[in-house]
Amino acid sequence: MNTKKALFEYCIRIGDNSMILGHRLSELCSRGPILEEDIAITNISLDLFGQCRNILTYAGEVEGKGRNEDDLAYHRPEHEFRSVLLTEQPNGHFGTTMARQMLFSVFHYYFYKELSKSNDVHLAAFAAKSLKETMYHMRHSSEWIIRLGDGTEESHEKMQEGLNKMWSYRHELFEKDAVDEHLIELGIAVDTAKFKDAYEKQLEEIISRATLEIPEEGWRATGGRIGHHSEYMGHILAVFQSLARAYPDAKW
Prior knowledge:
CATH topology: Ferritin
Low-confidence stretches: none
Radius of gyration: 18 Å
Helix content: 55-70%
Number of strands: 0
């Protein structure tokens, strides 16, 4: 396999996850349940966009075709996006939003922790910086799940509902293909299998503290990492890319 093409694909996958989830969280700007939480959600969204911009800039450099982070974010069609299906799921109620965030942030924590050891100097530095932000994202979402799960009867019910809805999407985060295997052999990519048990154990601890039930395993979401998305993705990009597509030569 061509290492250059594999590295570009790997960077795109990382960046697209942060981009799409960041956009979902941005939809909640001015709609938080309280002012402090409105600001917190917006800041997490900005962190994710910052991570996305960093890694997409590097992806453009690796590709070597003159595309920058804006080109990769705003001028790719839906089937070229590599974000997992978890990130594009609707916000729903607050319990659903926090369940989605927790499942992703706990994964991101372990992922960046391992990626900071990468043989690729840029990826290692990117991961080390992103890890500091992700630790906050993980703590924030986990504390809300515990607070809501161990709160009132209504908050407990809604938190369990949100967790049930998002639970099966977590498996796609650990999928591997030829791109991953090739870069793992070179010491560039992360072998997610190494921390899957730790990930699941941490989820179980959070759910237990929240007095919630671990959802039953059902179907497993898949397809986002190879460009097969849910019906939500087209609507996301219609909004996200609208300005850049209407004014493709604009500078800001």
